[in-house]
Fold this sequence. Notes:
This protein is an alpha+beta fold. The protein is 48% helix and 15% strand. The chain contains six helices and four strands, in the order αββαββαααα.
Amino acid sequence: MTNKEIAAAIFKLVGPKENILDVQNCMTRLRLQLVDRNYTDGQLKKIAGVKGVNNAGPEVQIVLGPGLARAVTEEFKHILENPAVLTEQATVQPADFGVGDGKALHASIKAKNATPFKLALKKIANIFMPLVPWLYWLRFAYRVIEHYY
């Protein structure tokens, strides 16, 4: 879901506009001051992107995660200022931006990085990576022996 869709879904549950006294956000949460709670926490948790709901006194804290909370709060405030935004249809589709499944991008990056030097380094790393934990334990054992003897 996009930030606008998440904000719209939350607004449809906690709205109308008159029910919302204040909207703020912190690093990971959308914080709402509501007049009346006419929803259940389970309904909010079913919205994609909502990780949890905390009720702290008169405040409802909707846990969204870092970065997402600020973006959804901005969209929520925009919807709060103009509820008619909810009825507008999106005119831009993800395909307009070249968003796909990413297989072509992955293949082009893999082909770009398939130089002989990088492939040789990768083979050498694959040989020595299983030995790294043993090297740490050997160093630890050496330090213990050195300390006591």
